[in-house]
Write a structure and sequence with these properties.
The chain has three helices and 21 strands. It is 11% helix and 36% strand.
Length: 310
C-alpha cells in the first residue's frame, strides 16, 4: 500500500459534505496527516493573551481535510487506526479565555459572574518529549497525545469544528490515541474525513476548556466496513470497547453512550439487550471527555474480559 502525506495549504473550520477533498486515499494506505493547534498557532508566549492574539481569527479549531477514502459509501463504517502521533514543536499551550470553561459562566450558561482573567500557560516538552513542564506550576505532566477532533462529514449540514456529534467531531476524548481504533459512521461517498486539535495531554472533562494544545502529525490507516453503520462513534483499545455520546444536558450524553454500548454488545457479542443492560450496570465504565464544548461528550466502556462467557 502507498504512503501518503497530507500537508494542508489551508484549513477548514466546519465538518462539511460540500468541500473539495484535500487528498484521496485507499483503505490500507499509510496516511500521515499534519495538524495545527486549536488556535492556528497564534498563541506562542504567555504574553499572547487570547483577546489580542485571536482578535483577527474568524474561527477556531482548524481541521485538515476532508480526506476522501475510496470505497466508502453511506451506510458503511469507517475504521480509523491511530498508529502514532508525533509533536511538531517543543511546547504546548493552554489558557483561560473569557466566558469559556467548565467553572465559569459561558455564552450557553449565562450568569452575572465576571469573566476569569485571561492567562496563558506554556508547557515545554522535557525528558525527550515524555513529559511537559510549566515553570510556574512546577509539575511534570506525562505526555499522552491524542486527537481532540476527528470526524466524518455529516450527511447534509456543515457543522462548526467546535462541535461534537454522531459524526465524531470535537469530542476531546483522550482514548482517541495511538494504539486504538475509532469507528465512525459514513454519511457521504468517500466518508470525507477531518482531523485536527492535537493534544499533548488533557484531564477528563477538559476543565478550563483548553487542553495542552500542540501541533502534530498523526499516522493513520483506514478500513471500510461495508454495510454496517455505527450510529455514534465507537473506540476499541486492546483492553476495552467504548462508545461516545455527545449532547446537552450531560445525562443525555451518558444515555447515548451507554445505549450505543448496549447495542454493540447485542449486535456483536451475543448478549440480549436485557443481559447487556444488566452487565453494564455492574461493570460498565463512564467518563467525561469534555464538559465545555457546544455539546458535552461522555465515554461508556466495558473491559474485554467481560465479553467472554464462561
Amino acid at each position: 500500500m502507498a504512503t501518503i502525506e497530507v500537508r494542508p495549504k489551508g484549513y477548514n473550520y466546519v465538518f462539511s459534505p460540500y468541500l473539495e477533498p484535500t487528498a484521496s486515499v485507499k483503505p490500507g494506505d499509510k496516511v500521515i496527516v499534519y495538524t495545527d493547534d486549536a488556535f492556528e498557532s497564534r498563541i506562542k508566549t504567555k504574553d499572547d493573551l487570547p483577546a489580542k492574539a485571536l482578535a483577527t481569527a474568524k474561527f477556531l479549531n482548524p481541521q485538515t481535510g476532508p480526506i476522501y477514502i475510496e470505497g466508502a459509501e453511506p451506510g458503511d463504517t469507517l475504521a480509523v487506526k491511530i498508529h502514532s502521533i508525533e509533536f511538531t514543536r517543543d511546547y504546548a499551550v493552554s489558557c483561560f479565555i473569557k466566558y469559556f470553561g467548565g467553572l465559569t459562566s459561558t455564552n450557553l450558561t449565562r450568569t452575572l459572574q465576571e469573566p476569569l482573567e485571561e492567562r496563558v500557560w506554556i508547557w515545554h516538552l522535557v525528558d525527550d518529549g515524555r513529559f511537559l513542564y510549566n515553570d510556574e506550576i512546577r509539575v511534570k505532566v506525562p505526555a499522552q497525545p491524542f486527537l481532540g477532533t476527528i470526524a466524518t462529514a455529516p450527511e447534509l449540514e456543515a457543522i462548526s469544528a467546535l462541535t461534537p456529534g454522531y459524526f465524531g467531531g470535537n469530542m476531546d476524548v483522550p482514548d482517541v490515541r495511538p494504539g486504538n481504533t475509532l469507528y465512525l459512521p459514513v454519511s457521504n461517498p468517500g466518508a470525507l474525513f477531518y482531523v485536527g486539535d492535537c493534544h499533548a495531554a488533557q484531564g477528563q472533562g477538559e476543565l478550563c476548556g483548553v487542553a495542552l494544545e500542540i501541533t502534530g502529525k498523526a499516522t493513520l490507516t483506514f478500513e471500510v466496513i461495508k454495510g454496517k453503520n455505527s450510529e455514534w462513534p465507537r473506540i476499541e483499545s486492546p483492553e476495552k470497547i467504548m462508545t461516545v455520546g455527545s449532547a446537552r444536558p450531560m445525562e443525555d450524553a451518558a444515555r447515548i453512550a451507554y445505549a450505543e454500548l448496549v447495542k454493540w454488545l447485542a449486535e456483536d457479542y451475543g448478549f440480549t439487550v436485557a443481559e447487556a443492560y444488566q452487565l453494564l450496570t455492574q461493570v460498565g465504565g463512564l467518563y467525561v471527555g469534555n464538559m465545555v464544548d457546544t455539546s458535552y461528550s461522555l465515554v461508556a466502556s466495558i473491559e474485554k474480559k467481560y465479553l467472554e462467557r464462561t
